[in-house]
Amino acid sequence: MRETAWGTSRLQIEVREPGDGRVVVALTGDASFLRLPGTREQLEGLPTDRPVELDPSGVRHIDLAGRVALENWARRHDDAGTEPVRMLPPAQP
What we know:
3 helices, globular
């Protein structure tokens, strides 16, 4: 059976609240244009009144559309008047 790009691309978003007021968002999988609608919806649902750390260390692949979507979301979150989104460094290959 041949798998399609849609079937093989997965992006999981895990939201943790360590108890110090911040929200940690861990991304795992492939951040591609195929997953943008669901990814955007989940990120837009995060609180805008608390600092957010975005942890892409579990991302295997991110395409240009995925990167732009994350950057645009971070900019909108920052414009809400809270601390800027802190992007942790991605995993090293």
